[in-house]
Request: fold
Amino acid sequence: MALPVELPASRSILLRPRAPYHFDANLRKPSHFPSSDTAWTPGTLRTTMFWGDEPLGLRFRNRGTPWRPRIYLTVYSRAALPEDGFRRVAEEVRWRFNLDQDIATFCRCYRDNRALGPAVRRWRGMKPVAANSLYETLMVYVVLQNAVVRRSIQMLEALFQRFGSRAAFDGHALSVFWPPEALVAASEEELRSLKVGYRARTLKRITDAFAGGEIDEIALRGAPKEEVAQAVSRLYGIGPASLEYLLFEDFYFLDALTMVPPWERKIMSRLLFHRTLVPEARILRFFRECFPGYEKLAFHYMWEDLFWRRDRERVDWLEREIRR
DNA sequence: CATCAGGGCCCTG
DNA sequence: CAGGGCCCTGAT
Reply:
């Protein structure tokens, strides 16, 4: 990969998310594997965005509280952004960081819940956050498939190196995702040389679909769940597990919980029932009965709360399940 | 050294 | 609808 692209120009705006909005719990998801396109410290997130043929740098600063949220957003670019271009970026950021979804009812209903209350009180205003474009998210999901975390990181970083770029802004250099067009010309063999294995075919076919305009991400936002599911499932290599993550994390359906993959099942068994392994159906029933309409959001609160705990203290049984 | 499963999915029978 | 194969890696 070439030298970083310098992004000297910048514009800023104060954003007002709908309350409650928890800055750190939305701009950082501790359960996600680390990648070189983002850098987080409490109260500040820096990340990148490939937008309209240009690499952009984004810096988010916390200027509020969960109940009176304010985010100071600075957008860095090579040349100064025109007013309307800047406004469109800010609008995209509102969607990607889920500034407008209303979860006040959820927080109010479950703040005293026996199982969920502690997590709700710690993280009230935490929501699903896409952070990336649909195409980028799919690339991440493909490298997650049938791999341990360490390998997923290696694969994504190799792809950044070969097809992405780096952007320097605000004293940081971060990776930038490649657009589909940057990968369409690559052969399956070339991808395989990056040690992505049989996923090479999947990466190519999804890229082709996006480059060919087969998926309209903007149109899918706000479409009914079934319609989103149908459109995304048509993509080669996207099965039930990836679809379920997508419906929640990328399209913000708070009730999208229909399966619990094996490693999540192990962790949830211990968290909820203090057992090493309970049947998947029992976990699903628990969330359906206790948090109707908010099954996956409730799951998310317990899940991320656990991984935040892992930040502060060592959780031995969890380390064994994560395998880096 | 060999074997195996991993934060799935496709394809076949 | 169940089950084998798939690329590679690190664990055993």
